[in-house]
Amino acid sequence: MISLHSLINQSKQEYSAAKLWMVSGSVWLAVGTVFGLLGAIHLAAPDYFANVPWLQFGRVRPLHVNTVFFGFVIAMLIGVCLYILPRVLNTRLYSESMGVIAGVIFNAAVLIGDIALLAGQTQAREYAEYIFPVDVLVVITFALLTYNIVMTVLRRQEKILYVSAWYIVGAMLWTCVVYVVGNVMWHPRTGAETGIGDAINAWYYGHDVLGLLMTPLAVAIAYYMVPRITRAPLYSQLLGIIGFWSLLAFYAHIGGHHLLQAPIPTWLKSVSVIDSFAMMIPVATVLINQWYTSRGRFDVFMANPAAKLMFVGTIWYAIVCIQGPLQSLASVQRVTHFNNWVIGHAHIAVLGFTGFIALGGMYYVLPYVTRRKIYREEYVNLQYWLLLLGLLGFFVELTIAGLIQGQGWLEGETVYQILPSLKPYMVLRVMSGLMIVTGSFIGLYNIIMTLLKGEPTTT
Description:
Helix content is about 75%, strand content about 0%. It is mainly alpha-helical and about 450 residues long. The chain has a single domain, classed as Up-down Bundle (Cytochrome C Oxidase, Chain A), CATH 1.20.210. The longest helix has about 40 residues. The radius of gyration is 21 Å and the shape is globular.
């Protein structure tokens, strides 16, 4: 048996925190996609799990969303960034043990939250379904991470803060505020305010947990990987800093575009739509910086499976941030709101943009963290194609289904008249989901085998 002393020593080893967060993210990806597949089966065959209460759609769907959102994407992004930050600061992480403890608490939070959701215990707010005790654990996690990261920055050997460090520190500081406010933690029993004010707050949180946590961490990883992979200096550090501050300036206000049909103040609707389009500024700074740094060297991304995942993530970022502002317009929302169009958009934002970059970053840094080569690079390629084709299927199928729904409602058709026309797309969604689940388990197997049997390396 492993002694407590041995565990403590292992938790102090360099990059032990990064390894814990990344590996746990891989596990939650497999779990989350399985429950996503169960949800897809519900939509294709609604009575399939009729006599299994804990597998009803109302429980499976939030479990899938939160597990992928928190357990996979956020955990893996944090894991990669816990490797990147010390590298760009030329300083060891302030406390590996603190990073490991934060990871253990966070994984306990996801596990408890998922069990509670299966039992029907929820706060019933988008991306905030986890119950209050779980919220407390998440806040403790980010308090530990923020302290650890800020102390690392203060003790740094490198005087100039590279743009990746800006985004990592910003993500931690912003989340400490966004999570508490968005989850209305001063009302532990309900986790919500009353009336239209809660809707405004809920979508402030719903957008900002993506835009002020997942987005900056993903961007930080891309800013680290692209110059290293291309062996070229970053196109513009200044452009990166402009992107950082413009992200903060514009993103916090765009959640209101989900409420254009609701009686929120008109000025808030106008601000949310204007800032949705203004978000093209921070997005453009990231993409110009990444792609200009890579110009003339795009072939190296196709030769490196980790780099390919990351680079395709930036392409998904471009698609997400073209589609997002357009669907914030009231004239577009008349057709696209409250239907499968939005679900398709959410999938390419979370899995396509941040998820692909998280996986690319994980595969890139895992050999440095474990000092072992990836067990099978061909498995990384296989996972890449399964996830890419599955996600492309999701995007196309759900976009078409959403347009059918929206146009039908616009012409006065009832829900029961439209449902039969959606059935083929829901079946295709299950098939796409099978590809994503398969890719997730192939990736998990590859990571486990890397830890156990990967060829040792001196790098």
